[in-house]
Design goal:
- The complex is a heterodimer of chains A (332) and B (331).
- With 332 residues, chain A is of the alpha/beta class.
- Chain A folds into 2 domains: 188 residues, Rossmann fold; 137 residues, 2-Layer Sandwich (Beta-Lactamase).
- Chain A contains 10 helices and 11 strands.
- In chain A, strand 4, helix 5 and strand 5 form a beta-alpha-beta unit.
- By secondary structure, chain B is an alpha/beta fold.
- Chain B has 2 domains: 170 residues, 3-Layer(aba) Sandwich (Rossmann fold); 140 residues, Beta-Lactamase.
- In chain B, the strands form 2 sheets. In chain B, strands 2-3-1-4-5-6 form a 6-stranded mixed β-sheet, sandwiched between helices. Chain B has a 5-stranded antiparallel β-sheet with strand order 8-7-11-10-9, with helices on both faces.
- Chain B is globular and about 60 Å long.
- In chain B, 37% of the residues are buried.
- The chains are: A alpha/beta (332), B alpha/beta (331).
- The interface between A and B is large, with 35 and 36 residues.
- Bound molecules: guanosine-5'-triphosphate (GTP), guanosine-5'-diphosphate and magnesium ion (MG).
- Magnesium ion binds next to helix 2 of chain A.
- Guanosine-5'-triphosphate (GTP) binds next to helix 2 of chain A.
């Protein structure tokens, strides 16, 4: 493979979004990437064929998302005449199961057919299985339903040659932050150089003496990565990262409504929350990312930290460029 | 003032009585506003069959009571006095998505009963469940209901009885706005608070200022400038952001007992929560929030011209407002 070809492919990461019609694929895509709120998705119609979207993520990472309409006739065509077109060069397959489906057995057959084709054309791709609409399962039955489904899926995956690490499971619903949690994992997997970013953030955190830093993407509000220090490691709210995604997303909608602009255009220059116990601020770090900083409740340290984050911008912008060059070394 | 209605409270804690037909949304409203139930979850509420009181401890205690539908104001043998004498406002909930003529006629009986026996009790009508209705239909039904009630009250000789109408839904901010207005009318401190907010706004170039009950997101006062639902919405949503972030990172101070509400802070130690958010586009519009105490927050939409370098002025004046408000609520 030539270098140009390779770098092109690595900038463009092809992500397939598949599953039965009505499973909720377009709903989640619209919420995560197009600033819909959960109750808006009822307006969506069934997806015809494949809807492509290119989503610039973290400056240099381009997600090339294929939302594949799940009606039988389309699926047949993906598996036959469009087979190599659809399944080649796939980085990630996100397969959505509707937990409330009346035809679970047939869903599993369709899943098996899909990953068989995937294995044929992109054997090294990663599979994220989203077990969706979990809000429809009563609380006490959730764990069991999930376990059962995961077991069936794993068996199918193994039969088709996708082993342990290559498959991940996430329970999701558009009605809570579980959706953000799952997509954060997908993004984390796709972000090139996540470890380099983490190292730089760790240094920054030390310099600021911050309790926690959270780097998240500006438009989707998905968390790219975070650094947690000292006692904050015992923070009982372990779901706080996806909760913050969800809070910020909602906040964006609220501001969009207030200013009469599109939610996609809104972003705040800065947010600060000061209490006696902690200080919190969010500010831009790079073109496409914002940084949330959590500090002890000390005004002077807070002001210093704001300046230091401004200074750090340069360094992180530099990282953006470095990533573009250095990427080939990172992924084989 | 000369009228002597027995035991009707003029001061003290606002107490509201919810009435209306079965399934009109009385319990849902109380749960959503006072107990933070998510609107979608109201679907699973059991019918209310006895008089139940919800108390919310805030800077004052809000009390709301629901009268189950089988008990009406005119039911002969129950102790009206026990129910109505301590009430500040009766809220009649009318489900517009249902056949509402029965509700109107019962509402009128109730209004007449109140006018004759408890004239000081405010009468408020919530034209409820307006979500999912077209603007036009909403407007038409609102007018129709109001007209009908007004006509019938006049015919019965109570045309002068003042009744307020609100369009509400638990699925948007309208229910909070309506509850805010109902509550404000029951607060003797309202004029003092309004005067303080007006002063603050004019000194600091603030576009709109709200004094929020942080927990319920009811606003207990606002300045005299025109009120737009969208200002209230953005401020109310911002309160949510602050409350959520404070919960997530305020865990250090919690001693396993959940919220440390009882622990009153020493107001002089600079421990006052403060927050602001600036928009990207026009750096001169921003929202500023300041805790008055554990229960009350001041939220301001800052207008053009009140740029960040005026923060010192704002801080100073908000400080003064803060102290004055604490005085107002000191008994
Ligand atoms: N209860 C519940 N409903 C959901 C959830 N996610 C999506 N839905 C509903 O599922 C329905 C179908 O959603 P879509 O996103 O259009 O489904 P799709 O998978 O894109 O369907 P095709 O495009 O035909 O393949 C919509 O009515 C959504 O409101 C969820 O988490 N919980
Ligand atoms: N669409 C809509 N439904 C509502 C609203 N408020 C309440 N409901 C629903 O109305 C039903 C009856 O509500 P409930 O509070 O039990 O009525 P109550 O008998 O008057 O206490 C529930 O299913 C609620 O979910 C609203 O604003 N809009
Ligand atoms: Mg679709």
């Amino acid at each position: 493979m030539s270098t140009t070809e390779r770098s092109k492919r690595q900038k463009q990461r092809k992500v397939l979004l598949m599953g039965r019609s009505g499973a909720g694929k377009s709903s989640m895509r619209s919420i995560i990437f197009s600033n819909y709120v959960a109750k808006d998705v009822r307006r969506l119609g069934a997806t015809v064929d494949v809807e492509h979207s290119n989503i610039r993520f973290m400056g240099n990472l381009m997600l090339n998302l294929w939302d594949c309409g799940g009606q039988d006739s389309f699926v047949e065509s993906y598996l036959s005449n469009q087979r190599s077109h659809v399944f080649s060069s796939v980085a990630v397959l996100i397969f959505v199961f509707d937990i409330s489906s009346k035809v679970a057995a047939s869903d599993m057959v369709s899943f098996a057919d899909t990953i068989r084709a995937l294995h044929e054309f992109s054997p090294n791709s990663k599979i994220f299985v989203l077990i969706h609409k979990m809000d429809l399962v009563p609380g006490e039955q959730k764990a069991r339903a999930l376990q059962q489904k995961a077991h069936d899926v794993r068996t199918t995956c193994e039969d088709e040659g996708f082993l342990g690490q290559q498959v991940e499971f996430w329970a999701t619903s558009i009605w809570d932050q579980s959706l953000y949690k799952a997509w954060t994992q997908v993004i984390y997997f796709l972000v090139p150089n996540a470890t380099v970013i983490e190292n730089m953030l760790e240094k920054l955190a030390e310099l600021l003496d911050a309790r926690e830093l959270i780097l998240y993407e500006r438009t989707t509000c998905l968390v790219v990565t975070h650094v947690t220090r000292g006692s904050e490691g015992r923070n009982p709210y372990t779901d706080r990262f996806e909760r913050i995604s969800s809070i910020l997303k909602t906040h964006k909608h609220s501001m969009a409504k207030h200013t009469g602009t599109m939610a996609s255009e809104v972003s705040f220059a800065e947010m600060q929350i000061k209490t006696g116990e902690f200080m919190f601020f969010i500010t831009r770090l790079t073109e496409n990312t914002n940084l949330a900083v959590v500090m002890p409740g000390d005004e002077a340290a807070f002001n210093a930290a704001r300046v230091n984050v401004q200074l750090a911008r340069q360094e992180f912008a530099h990282l953006d460029i470095m990533e573009k060059k250095g990427k080939e070394v990172q992924r084989q | 003032n000369g009228q002597q209605a027995p035991n009707v409270r003029r001061k003290g804690n606002p107490k509201m009585l919810f009435m209306g037909l079965r399934r009109s949304g009385k319990s849902s409203i109380q749960k959503v506003v006072f107990e933070k139930l998510s609107p979608a979850d109201t679907l699973f509420l059991e019918p209310t069959s006895r008089i139940g009181t919800v108390k919310m401890q805030s800077f004052i205690t809000f009390e709301s009571v629901e009268l189950p539908h089988q008990l009406s104001a005119t039911t002969p043998d129950f102790d009206h006095h026990a129910v109505f004498s301590h009430i500040g406002a009766v809220i009649w909930v009318l489900d517009v998505q249902d056949e509402y003529l029965t509700s109107i006629s019962e509402m009128i009986q109730t209004a007449v009963f109140l006018a004759e026996n408890y004239p000081r009790v405010n009468f408020e009508v919530f034209i409820h469940k307006t979500d999912g209705l077209s603007e036009e239909y909403k407007y038409e039904t609102f007018r129709e209901v109001r007209q009908r009630v007004q006509d019938e009250l006049s015919d019965l000789g109570h045309g002068d009885r003042s009744v307020s109408y609100f369009q509400t839904s638990i699925f948007d901010h309208s229910i909070f706005e309506a509850m805010s207005k109902v509550v404000q009318r029951l607060l003797p401190q309202l004029p003092a608070m309004e005067a303080l907010l007006n002063k603050l706004c004019s000194t600091c170039g603030i576009q709109k200022a709200y004094l929020f009950d942080t927990m319920s997101k009811i606003y207990v006062a606002t300045d005299a400038s025109p009120t737009f639902l969208k200002d209230y919405e953005v401020c109310s949503d911002y309160v949510d952001v602050i409350v959520d972030i404070k919960q997530i990172y305020g865990w250090h101070g919690q001693d396993g007992e959940g919220k440390a509400v009882s622990e009153r802070r020493n107001q002089d130690d600079g421990d006052i929560g403060e927050s602001m958010v600036t928009y990207d586009r026009s750096g001169d519009t921003y929202i500023y929030a300041r805790e008055i105490n554990d229960y009350l927050s001041l939220i301001c939409v800052m207008g053009k011209g009140s740029t960040t370098n005026k923060r010192v002025l704002i801080d100073y004046n908000v400080g003064i407002l803060h102290d004055a408000l604490l005085q107002v609520f000191k008994v």
